[in-house]
């Protein structure tokens, strides 16, 4: 089971459509689908998804994440919180032998390829 967040600045070049394009290129042997704000990558019985979340609680949750990231400048933290949007990446499928860990890392690489998006581990807030 994997989980990551992408904190978004107002001036990011991230878009769901561009993420979909980059993920299709990164995962040529997987089924990559996009429905609204969610992209799902699947192969066999394993999947991982990316979704853009927004709403009243997202800014508060993001504030809680950035408050625990060491070395993040206050102005930068405020920029991530101000958008009220965040990217969530997750898979609830157990992976006891870590057969899909590299796939998870490839997903993170795609997140990191966008300007103005900071990939973090929300459980142990730190930059990925």
Textual characterization of the structure:
By secondary structure, the chain is α+β, with helices and mostly antiparallel strands. Helices cover 32% and strands 30% of the residues. The protein is built from 4 helices and 6 strands. It has helices spanning 16-26, 58-66, 74-82, 101-112; strands at 2-8, 31-35, 38-43, 46-54, 85-91, 117-120. The chain has a 6-stranded antiparallel beta sheet with strand order 2-3-4-5-1-6, sandwiched between helices. Strand 3 (38-43) and strand 4 form a beta hairpin. Helix 1 crosses helix 4 (101-112) and helix 2 packs antiparallel against helix 3. The protein is globular and about 45 Å long. It starts with a strand and ends in an 8-residue tail after the last strand. The mean pLDDT is 95.
Strand order of the largest sheet: 2-3-4-5-1-6
What's the number of helices?
4
Q: What is the radius of gyration?
A: 14 Å
Number of E-type strands: 6
Strand content: 25-35%
Span from first to last CA? 16 Å
The H/E string reads EHEEEHHEHE
Chain-averaged pLDDT: 95
Low-confidence stretches: none
Task: Give the helix level as a range of percent.
Answer: 25-40%
Characterize the biggest β-sheet.
6 strands, antiparallel
Tell the overall outline.
Answer: globular
Based on secondary structure, the structural category is alpha+beta
